[in-house]
Design brief:
The chain has helices at residues 23-26, 36-53, 69-80; strands at residues 63-65, 87-89. By secondary structure, the chain is mainly alpha-helical. Strands 1-2 form a two-stranded parallel sheet. Helix 3 (69-80) links the parallel strand 1 (63-65) and strand 2 (87-89). The two termini are 24 Å apart.
Length: 91
């Protein structure tokens, strides 16, 4: 069963004029949550959750895609977690 999922990494749930004012930038112990590595780990966790909770999604293959930063994340996701995605597409 195909499942379309669009997950977008972001630094907060609202727009801000200066992201450096966010608590994650002020507290160095939280700065790791803003990395591309953390975004990839979050995507794999989300995919695993969906495959285990959505009926019929467990055997569905995953193809990562995106443009610009999302395209780089798609490529890195395929490289770092080859068991999680069968391929990637970057326009």
């Amino acid at each position: 069963m195909p499942v379309d999922l669009y997950a977008h990494p972001c630094i907060c749930n609202k727009q801000v004029s200066n992201p450096r004012l966010l608590p994650s930038f002020k507290d160095l112990t939280k700065s790791g949550y803003l990395s591309s590595e953390q975004a990839l780990a979050d995507f794999v966790t989300l995919m695993d959750h969906i495959k285990h909770t959505v009926p019929g999604a467990g055997d569905s293959p995953v193809v990562a895609f995106g443009g610009s930063y999302g395209g780089m994340l798609a490529a890195w996701l395929r490289m770092k977690y080859p068991h999680a995605v069968i391929g990637y597409e970057k326009p």
